Hints:
Layout: E1 14-16, H1 23-39, E2 47-53, E3 56-63, H2 70-77, H3 81-89, E4 107-113, E5 134-140, H4 143-153, E6 163-167, H5 173-185, E7 189-192, H6 194-202, E8 208-209, H7 220-225, E9 231-234, H8 239-244, H9 246-254, E10 259-260, H10 263-279
Parallel strand pairs: 6-7, 6-9, 7-8, 9-10
Antiparallel strand pairs: 1-4, 2-3, 4-5
Helix pairs in contact: 4-10, 5-10
Amino acid sequence: HIEEAGVHSGDSACALPPFTLSVDLQKRLGEQAAQLAMALNVRGLINIQFAVKDNEIYVLEANPRASRTVPFVAKAVGAPIAGIAAKVMAGEALSGFDLSNARPRRIAIKEAVFPFARFPGVDPQLGPEMRSTGEVMGWDDDFGMAFLKSQLGGGVRLPDEGTVFISVRDSDKKGAEEAARGLAQLGFTLLATSGTADHLESKGIPVKRVNKVLEGQPHIVDAMINGEVQLVFNTTEGAASLSDSASIRRTAVARKIPYFTTLAASLAAVKAIASMKSSGRTEGAQIR
């Protein structure tokens, strides 16, 4: 998954092959998955959710069933996984199927589709409760372009120019440097509230300041309504911060401004924009 643990797996974007896990770590995950399946005497499919922190592997859950990710994985690796699992459950031996080439053929990105636009006033903040109503798939040899295609499939058109608003929680500020620097190099203007602006300026990244909503007008929501913001990166921590920034996310939905509420997805979006601009294909309709 692209988003970290804490976002429901059904709402998280997913990449195959994984773009943040080392080959050694992927091997360890595969070994642990096999050991779990054997120990639980599972025939057919097993859905295991792992979390990794500081190279340590944790098991969140293991369910002896399929999941909505199975069709995505089957297409990404080129193998009829559900059909094979059904035959194994019916008594056929797994050794009777050639899965030696069941590996990702290109970079595949699964992205969730959300119904927020149909519910005015709803807060699109992602969390442990599943909110998506469907999913789409992006497919390319380049991660950024695959992520871009997944966004287009979900109805999100990333900008190739303009102003990006960045407001992130303290634990994300270091990671936000990479996103902000990348956007500045791509020609975007950066806009941030005081805390994020202070941090970015201390790292030599040019940024304009804007008031929080509670600090009075003109504030960030005014800028969004006036068409002055083309992309939003907004991560929060704590009930007070979540409530304070809800109007930003609601305005993004109402104004159809692309927004990302996790650092990982924000970084992926920067890669997508970089790939779009380097390819010269800035119109989503041209990308297949």
